[in-house]
Amino acid sequence: MKYSIVIPTYNSTKVLVDLQEQLTEVLNSTGETFEIIFVNDHSPNPRTWETIKDICAQNPKVVGIQLSRNFGQQSATLCGLKHAKGEYVFTMDDDLQHKPSDLLKLMEHEGHDMVVAQFVNKQHSFFKRITSKMKSYFDRIILGKPKGIQLSAFRMLHKNVVQGMLNIKTPSPYIAGLMFYISKDIVSVPLAHGARAEGQSGYNLFSLIKLFGRLIINNSSLMLRFIGNMGLFFAFMSMLALVYILVVRLFFDSLVAGWASILTAVLFFGGMQLFALGIIGEYLIRIIRSTEGNPSFHVKEIVSAE
Question: Residues 237, 177: one domain?
Answer without folding.
Answer: no
